[in-house]
Structure formats: structure tokens, C-alpha cells
Inverse folding.
């Protein structure tokens, strides 16, 4: 029984002792427009990517879901619920092992099976929170109606002048379109691809403009880590800059100085 309580204590400590973390997105988008022998392509790792057809017929836009503070809270809440449900399933299994009779064993065994299945559901839902939404738009910027064909699904849409056609992407996803005027002139072929991921990172500091990510390694002592460097990451364009410990301390000192002024 003492081992049971020790195991319980270790699990609780493992679930509650966690460094300051957040979830940082990594976006990727690509748009390619082919017009006969002419071709135009763009790519970036930002939330939005746009490309205008050279003839001025349409604009293709890809928009990724933002990872706001509310989104981070939702992910952490789902992860925390999944963690506690896994903990409950483990404890239920331990309780079953300490059953004193066959009836008690049967009841506790059933509880363990239910708890384990629920833990799988919680884990699946928590992972789903990390899948960001992606939208694609075809904006008709001309004064004539255009025709948009989905070359994979065989669907056709007609888009009025200065109106838009919306596509909901999976993550990741790709779309192949044929776009022209309604007389099948000025034919263009479009390939659009996009995907994203959200990674849990240990951070030392953040504000509305930047994250400071801490990179460290274990020292050999239990729970102790040595800092290798810091990474200053922009929330605007996701650019990164390495900083030494001294540079990070100077950076924080300057931030605090500005806040006092």
C-alpha cells in the first residue's frame, strides 16, 4: 500500500510541475498560377499569402488560423483534461490490482476499461485542438463573371464581378483549380497548398510582439538544466534571432526600463 501512495504522489508531481510553456505555430503556404508558358509562384511562412493573376482577373488568398492567447488556453485546457483522465485510468488500474474479492475486482476492472476509453477520447480531442483552420479565397477583381473549376472533384462555380469564392482547407491540404472567364478564354491553372503545425515550447518571456524561447539541456542532476541560448522570435513574421544569456539579460533590462518610462 505504501508503494501505491508513493506512485500516486509521483504522478501528481509529474502532472503539476511544469515550466512556463506556450504553443507556437509554424505556417507554410504556396500558390502557383500557370498561364500557358507563363508561370508565377509565391510561398511564405506567415498567416496570410496572396497572389494576383497577372491579367487582373482574380486574386488567390490563403489564410491560416491565428494562435491567439485564447487558442493557447484552449489547447492547454484540453491537454490538462487529457492528462488527468490518463491519470484517472492509471489509478483505476492500480485500484483494480488491490481488489479484495472477485466482485470488487469485476466492478473496478469495468471502471478501468471505461476510464481508459475515455482517456483515448480526451487525448484525441486534445490533439484536435492543435489542428489549425485554413481558408482559401478566390476573389474576382475583374468586371466580368469568372468560372472556377475544381479539377479534382469536378465541381464548377460562377463568381460575379468583385465577389469571392471560399474554400475550407483540411490541414494540410492542396487544391487544383482551372479559372477562366465564362467564355473559356483567358484560362489559368492554379495550384494552392497549405499546412501548419503547433508545437509546445518552453518560453522565458513574451509580450504582444515577441516570444523568447529557452534552449537548454539536462546537467545530470535530477530536474536541473543548463541554458544553451535563447531565441527571440517575432509574432509578426516569425523571424528568429539567437541570443546569449548575457544578451537576453540586457534585452529584458531594456524592456523593463521602457516599461517604467
Amino acid at each position: 500500500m505504501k508503494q501505491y501512495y508513493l506512485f500516486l504522489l509521483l504522478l501528481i508531481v509529474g502532472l503539476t510541475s511544469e515550466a512556463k510553456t506556450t504553443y507556437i505555430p509554424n505556417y507554410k503556404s504556396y500558390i502557383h498560377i500557370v498561364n500557358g508558358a507563363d508561370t508565377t509562384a509565391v510561398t511564405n511562412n506567415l498567416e496570410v499569402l496572396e497572389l494576383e493573376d497577372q491579367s487582373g482577373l482574380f486574386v488567390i488568398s490563403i489564410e491560416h488560423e491565428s494562435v491567439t492567447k485564447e487558442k493557447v488556453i484552449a489547447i492547454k485546457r484540453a491537454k490538462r483534461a487529457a492528462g488527468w483522465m490518463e491519470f484517472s485510468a492509471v489509478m483505476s488500474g492500480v485500484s483494480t490490482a488491490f481488489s479484495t474479492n472477485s466482485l470488487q475486482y469485476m466492478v473496478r476492472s469495468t471502471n478501468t476499461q471505461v476510464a481508459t476509453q475515455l482517456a483515448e477520447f480526451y487525448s484525441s480531442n486534445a490533439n484536435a485542438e492543435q489542428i489549425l483552420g485554413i481558408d482559401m479565397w478566390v476573389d474576382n477583381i475583374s468586371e466580368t463573371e469568372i468560372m472556377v473549376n475544381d479539377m479534382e472533384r469536378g465541381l464548377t462555380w460562377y463568381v460575379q464581378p468583385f465577389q469571392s469564392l471560399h474554400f475550407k482547407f483540411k490541414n494540410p491540404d492542396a487544391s487544383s483549380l482551372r479559372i477562366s472567364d465564362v467564355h473559356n478564354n483567358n484560362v489559368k491553372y492554379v495550384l494552392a497548398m497549405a499546412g501548419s503545425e503547433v508545437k509546445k515550447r518552453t518560453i522565458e518571456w513574451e509580450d504582444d510582439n515577441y516570444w523568447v524561447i529557452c534552449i537548454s539541456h539536462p546537467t545530470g542532476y535530477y530536474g536541473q538544466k543548463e541554458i544553451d541560448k535563447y531565441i527571440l522570435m517575432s509574432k509578426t513574421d516569425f523571424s528568429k534571432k539567437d541570443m546569449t544569456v548575457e544578451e537576453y539579460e540586457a534585452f529584458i533590462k531594456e524592456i523593463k526600463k521602457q516599461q517604467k518610462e
In short: The radius of gyration is 26 Å. Confidence is low (pLDDT under 50) at residues 1-18.
